[in-house]
Amino acid sequence: MPLSTARWPNLVQSRVIIPSIFVFFIVYGSVSGQEASDLVQLSPIIVTPGKFTILGGAKSVVTLTKREIESLPLIDNDVARAAHIFPGVVSNEYSARFSVRGGEKDEILVRLDGMELYEPYHLQDFGGAVSIIDLGLIRHADLLMGGFPAEYGDRLSGVYDLHVMHGNREEFSANLGVDLINAHMLLEGPLSDRGSWLVSARRGYLDIILNLMGADEELKPQYADVYGKITYDLTSQDTLSVNSLYAWDKNRIREEDDESNLDSRYQNAMVWTKWRHHFNEEIWSDVFLFNGLVTRDRQEGVNGIDTRDFGYLGSKAEITARLVNTHTLRAGLEWRWSAADYNYSVPTYGQITTQFIQSRCSVCDLKRKTWAKVDAHGTDVKGYLQDEWQLHPKLAVNAGVRLLFQNYRKEGTQGQELSPRVALAYRATENIILRSAWGFYHQPTDLTTIPVEDGEDDIGRAEQATHYVIGGDYVVPNRVLIRAEAYHKRLANLIGHIPDYGRQARIVAPAHSGSAKGIDLFVNGVISDRMTGSLGYAFLIAKAREAPATVFPSVFGEEFFRESDQRHTIALHGNYRLSPSWQLHGAWRFHTGNPTTELNHSIVNSFDGVSACERSFGEYHAERLPAFHSLDLRLTKTSPHNGWHLSWYFQVLNLYNRSNVHEYAFSEERDEATNRLIDCHVIKEPFFPIIPTLGVSVTF
Fold first, then answer.
1. Are 589 and 570 in contact (CB under 8 A)?
2. Percent of the chain at pLDDT above 70?
């Protein structure tokens, strides 16, 4: 398995910066409500299992309004972190990224108004701590965690589908807000009498806070994003929208040793148009044109280079037709041209280049590279066809298939994949809906996602997953929802990962196949006229198997737990409406420890009397971190005034100051006067301690 020594900066040990750095890491929420009648709504049969909707939505029985999310312990009101509340989602306090049901973090498709987003997170050197989309923009968001239909593709595990609101067509309005890590602005207004516009901008000022506080290291993490949207009715049947998104990051870390230094820049720009035409009330089409650019320039340690430039353009068309009140047909076709330029090399430390080593694998014959250079371009063609058929008032089926074609795969590799899928829903009684799903899911490596950090510089077959899902809902309208689902995923042809930068050495096993199985349970109910609560529980086993040997290709390596293997997870949430303008929210989370690899660190003396630290590793993911648990409270106050609206919050995260362990890391103890090595340790790197925060926003 590959090993390098990319590290987190020593943030947790620098006490002076704890009160500011924590804010972009710790966040989550729950389903809660201002009014009992808004909590649960009985809807028509939903065929798709594993679907939760955030910020309201006509098709889901689980909804969160924007006001509800603003009452949660949710730093920066991050829409990505809002998804962490649901059972089956695996995440940590340091990152807005998440995985679902035993998958990896890159197995989630993130879409914004119908377009796929690439690298949708700020502060990637810190695990992707903040999403690039401001929550204030979002009308609603759908999270699909398994068995999703053919209209969604190119990912193995889940879909996070974000829908942006339209601008205010009646009058100009503005929302200005500030908290401890960033300031944001949202402006919107009418565009003649046939359209609207909106502009959102955010600027993180964590670098300014760290500079004012005099941190020990030179730390300058910076980020900003801007989003704009124009919507215009060309005719009574045609609506045109133009969207643009730009996100920017810059990070600089300077410590005493060059091995820990880092300079990085990231840019993500995208422009797309959407033309919706209604043939009649039952048939409509959407046509998209899009163009984007994603860049990375990362200089790490000594001679560590990671530069990537991706450009892409294309178009896609979709049509929806509701026929004879029993069929909803959907079809789509997408063409995309991409170009990519990679230049990657592993950092060197002293005179020794980081080595790629393997653990557990007794038969693997791996040849890992410490460098990669790619300059390529090519075309992707994607299409789908699906039919949601209401067979009976109590029975519905969704059947479909996706097609993927790539013209730039290496020789001897199939250039296309077919992904058939089918899901059933049966309303057993007025209150009970049962669902099941089966399907193939493919996640291709394309020119924007070549895992060069894993030694890959070419593109072959897509990763593959087979989903089996069964479950159901019990709903008492306006009172209680109980949702339970069991699932089994089989994974094949796995490749690549998202590096999780930390203080410990990066340890990665070359997984080739795997499986995930588990149960998700979610209970949400009205306790009184003023109080709502929810309980989420998830049981998960996620395993992978190492790649086969090149000498004996039919012989696989040993099996190990995936990083997302989080055996038991519990989340309790409660919201109490103290008055129409005051909300108190409490949330408690628990999960058993994630897999980890034992680190050994001992001092050795050379023949010339110079001491050094010797590192070694135990069996890959054979140990477990300690269990995690934390209690958060948030008090929210909303104050309407004549012509404007004030909202502020005060919250305390990790109320009882639990020292939760993020990871184990190597540490050296040296004499301050002589810099002589005294001892070598393995230390616990914690998540953040008890933290009070506050924020305020004004709307007028």
1. yes
2. 82
Which secondary-structure segment (H or E) carries 66?
helix 66-69
Beta bridge mates, 523: 482, 535
Q: Which of 2, 80, 73 is nearest to 32 (CA)?
A: 73
Compute the distance between CA of residue 260 and CA of residue 502 in angstroms, rounded to an integer: 11
360 pLDDT more than 50: no
CA angle 566, 567, 570 (to 5 degrees): 85
Nearest CA-CA partner of 551 in 372, 369, 367: 367
Distances (CA, A) of 677 to 306, 507, 669: 32, 25, 6
Contacts of 578 (CB under 8 A, 6+ apart): 530, 584
- Residues 457 and 450: beta-carbon distance below 8 Å: yes
Q: Which of 121, 116, 68 is nearest to 98 (CA)?
A: 121
Neighbouring residues of 459: CB distance < 8 A, sequence distance ≥ 6: 406, 408, 409, 410, 413, 444, 445, 446, 447, 450
CB distance 332 to 153 below 8 Å? no
| Residues shown for the chain | 700
Which helix (H) or strand (E) segment holds residue 315: the answer is strand 304-323
pLDDT of residue 363: 38
Phi (first) and psi of residue 362, to 5 degrees:
-90, -15
| Cross-strand partners of 545 | 513, 559
How large a percentage of the chain has pLDDT more than 90?
Answer: 48
Distance CA(172)–CA(699), nearest Å, equals: 11
Lowest-confidence region among 163-167, 557-561, 679-683: 557-561
Q: Angle at CA 656, nearest 5°, toward 205 and 96? A: 40
Q: Is 57:92 a contact under the CB 8 Å cutoff?
A: no
Question: How do beta strands 99-100 and 283-300 pair?
Answer: unpaired
- From 200, 73, 89, select the one nearest 143 (Cα to Cα): 89
User: How many whole angstroms separate alpha carbon 617 and alpha carbon 359?
Assistant: 8
pLDDT at 62: 47
Alpha carbon 436 to its chain's center: 25
The per-residue pLDDT for range 291-326, each reduced to its tens digit, is 999 999 999 877 889 999 999 999 999 999 999 888
Which pTM was predicted? 0.87
Nearest Cα residue to 653 out of 60, 72, 186: 72
Per residue in 253-272, pLDDT (tens digit) is 877 666 778 899 999 999 99
Residue of 524, 614, 496, 519 lying closest to 568 (CA atoms): 519
Sign of CA dihedral 440, 461, 564, 17: negative
Query: pLDDT tens for residues 194-231?
Result: 999 999 999 988 777 666 655 556 778 899 999 999 99
What is the identity of the amino acid at 617?
F
Cα 343 → chain centroid: 26
- Cβ-proximal residues to 12 (8 Å cutoff; 6+ apart), any chain: 18, 685, 686, 688
Q: Between 12 and 332, where is the model more confident?
A: 332
Confidence bin at 357 (pLDDT 50/70/90): very low
Distance CA 659, CA 664 (A): 13
The 3-state DSSP class for residue 34 equals coil
Whole-angstrom CA distances from 502 to 8, 303, 325, 664 are: 4, 19, 54, 9
Q: What is the number of helices (H) and of strands (E) in the chain?
A: 4, 43
The C-alpha atoms of residue 517 and residue 507 are separated, in whole angstroms, by 24
Pairing of strands 327-345, 348-349: unpaired
Smallest CA-to-CA distance from 143 within 105, 103, 100, 90 is with: 100
Contact 590, 570 (CB under 8 A): yes
Query: Are 386 and 47 spatial neighbours (Cβ–Cβ below 8 Å)?
Result: no
Q: How confident is the model at residue 5 (pLDDT cuts 50, 70, 90)?
A: very low
